[in-house]
Every structure is written in C-alpha cells, then in structure tokens.
Design a protein that fits this description.
This protein is an alpha+beta fold. It has one domain. It is built from 2 helices and 9 strands, in the order H-E-E-H-E-E-E-E-E-E-E. It has a 7-stranded mixed beta sheet with strand order 1-2-3-6-7-8-9, covered by helices on one side. Strand 6 and strand 7 form a beta hairpin. The longest helix is centred in the first third of the chain and has 26 residues.
Amino acid sequence: MKHKKELFGLLLFSGCALISYRILLSKHPVEIVAVHQESHYSDVLVNNFPYTDKGKIDWWLKNKGMLKEKYDIPDPDSEGNYTISFWDFGDGYVETDGYDRLCFNDMKPPLNCINKNSLMFVMNGKNTGLSFWVDGGIYRVNENGKRMRTNYD
C-alpha cells in the first residue's frame, strides 16, 4: 500500500510539472526571426512556435493578416498557389555542412544556413485548396472552413 501512495504521488507531481511546463511555453509569444522568400515559396524562421497541431494552425489563422502586411507573405502565383514553410530557428544561422542543412541564397556564406527542423508547411493550390502539413498529418480546409485531417501517405 505504501508503494502505491508513493507511485501516485510521483505521477501526480510529474503531471503537475508537465502541465506547468506547457502553460509556461504557451505564454511565450512566437518570435519571427527572419523571412526568406524565393518566388512563391517562403521560409519563416521562428522561435517559440506552438507545440500542438491545433496551436500551430490557430496561430496561422490568427496571424496571417500580420504576415501579409509585415512580410508580404504569402506571395501567390497567378493561379493562387503558394507554400510557406515554418522552421525552428534553434541554433541560429550556421555554416553549410554540405549535406542536410537549409541554406538561403539571399544571404552571404558562411552563416547562411539552418538545421532543418520543420514545424509546419502551409500550402495553397488551385486544385487542392488550403492545407496545413504538421506532425500529426495533413489538415485540409474544405469550402465550409472546416479542417479535415488525413494521414501522410
């Protein structure tokens, strides 16, 4: 019986710590460090991005007007197609490793790359409509504005 009480206390403490940590994370605003754009593709480097799929999509919906006004993204082509990639800025700009880092042509080397840690892709296509690619799958927005989740194929 004593061990059950200790286990319950440990689980309760761990749960409270996890909830407190999540609340603390949610209180930090998203920081947009930089935006790199090439044609109709935009890379947005961020810190403190929401953790959950819902949080990420809700952040986009709440801030898409600000992104358009401040950074002129998205920049759709003549048919309305665009892609916006959100990346964790993490360790900041680093040198290329010649292999698996994302490097930006609009910056001079050597510190013009980031470690690839994608957070969300927002895509709009003439035939596919608006979709969000996040950890939990792909969320497509139908004509009624409802989000429909599909798994990656």
